[in-house]
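Example record

One chain of 250 residues, shown exactly as stored in the release files.
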Amino acid sequence: MNDFWKSYDITHAEYGADYRCYPLYGTVHLMELAISLAFIVGAALWYRRSSARTRRRILVGVTALLLLDQAALLLGMALTGQWNWGYLPLHLCNINVFVCLYNTITDRNWCKEELYALCIPGAMLALLCPSWLDVPSWWTLINLHSVSIHALLVLYPVLLVASGYRPSPRRVPQVLAFLFGSALPIYFLNQSLNTNFYFLNDPYGNIITSTFTALLGEKYYILGFLPATALALLLMYLPWAADDKKKKRA
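Predicted structure tokens for this chain:
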């Protein structure tokens, strides 16, 4: 099989479980981050300067790219005989692809709030600390898919804010309800399918959950998500709360 199509399982068998195709913040990783940033900033500037009709087309286009990107991975793994339950689109970022689709169709504030509060920091962290490096090289379906889909997931809610959507700290309970409400069934699904969606079944292979394990131990690493989520929400809403406070003073 050509290296381009090889999955984690084949790479582990050939190179060992500790193999990484490129180092964090090495040349390849920095180039991927730079290209992603340029794409997001460029698309957001184009969107902001566009008419309402063009904005709608851009949003639909980004949604279509997200769905095609997700489908490409599933189809690639299926056609090469590598598909398993772990490729179900049930990580938080995968689920946000469908939240983007639902928002594009219905234009709901709770979708926008969840995408702003969870999708942006989650997808950004995935790009900054990728957990998909155990593939043969950067030129693989899995690596290219993972970089592109997470860049698109950052872009979508950025476009919502660029069009005037204003996140509200008052909607944080809705965001938390979505996060923990979706994590609970995923936790039990992981047990039955031996998968690791939301990284709730195994802390290894992800630098963030591995850090939680180093600090809290393997038994309690899940507790690390609580302060991490609180910090992420604080960083995402602090600018808006400060702006509200400034307007009230004025």
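Notes: Residues 3-249 form one domain.
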